[in-house]
Design a protein that fits this description.
CATH class: Mainly Beta
Radius of gyration: 16 Å
Function: Catalyzes the epimerization of the C3' and C5'positions of dTDP-6-deoxy-D-xylo-4-hexulose, forming dTDP-6-deoxy-L-lyxo-4-hexulose.
InterPro entries: RmlC-like, RmlC-like_jellyroll, RmlC_Cupin_sf
Helix content: under 10%
Subunit structure: Homodimer.
Strand content: 35-45%
Order of helices and strands: EEEEHEEEEEEEEEEH
Shape: globular
Structural class: mainly beta
Protein name: dTDP-4-dehydrorhamnose 3,5-epimerase
Enzyme class: isomerase
CATH architecture: Sandwich
Length: about 180
């Protein structure tokens, strides 16, 4: 696997090794030893994954920006197994030098790219194709009282969503009333 740093410390783009031939392809979607070794080499904390989640979204569905507050903060290792998304992580760690900055990346079944988002980030994505399946591992269990959200189109954050690739943006009622950053 190849690990790429982003402009925000701790956010990582992961390119798995994919082995293909005329029969198809094979890849390790997760290997704890290799993941821990890569994080150790970058002097980053090692997560303990406790839950896997899987969602299905139609083109234009925007989920987020969601986070869990301490002590129920969640790190997420995310990927797409069908379809395509624009995935965004926003640094909401008040003590961070990149507080309020964001990174966006396209994840798809085709590129097989994964995104490591540690605790202290708000996360969201927009589905760019129908029947997009999104998988993610979390480092903590969901806790309703610790759930938080930021409105997806907050002008202060100025996230560059690829809205030209969708006809309509479909947002849940709860996400429509999320507070600003």
């Amino acid at each position: 696997m190849k690990i790429e740093k982003t402009k925000i410390e701790g956010l990582l783009v992961i390119q798995p090794n994919v082995f293909g031939d005329d029969r198809g392809w094979f890849m390790e979607s997760f290997n704890l030893q290799k993941f821990e070794q890569a994080l150790n080499e970058l002097n980053l904390p090692i997560p303990n994954f406790v839950q896997d989640n899987h969602s299905l979204s139609q083109k234009g569905v925007l989920r987020g920006l969601h986070f869990q507050s301490a002590p129920y903060g969640q790190g997420k290792l995310v990927r797409v197994v069908q379809g395509r998304v624009w995935d965004v992580a926003v640094d909401i760690r008040p003590e961070s030098k990149t507080y309020g900055q964001w990174v966006g990346i396209e994840l798809s079944a085709e590129n097989k790219t994964m995104f490591w988002i540690p605790e202290g980030f708000a996360h969201g994505f927009i589905a760019l194709e129908d029947n997009t399946q999104f998988l993610y591992k979390t480092t903590n269990y969901y806790n309703n009282e610790s759930e938080g959200a930021i409105i997806w189109n907050d002008p202060t954050l100025a996230i560059e969503w690829p809205l030209d690739q969708v006809d309509d943006v479909l947002v849940s009622d709860k996400d429509k009333i999320a507070p600003k950053f």
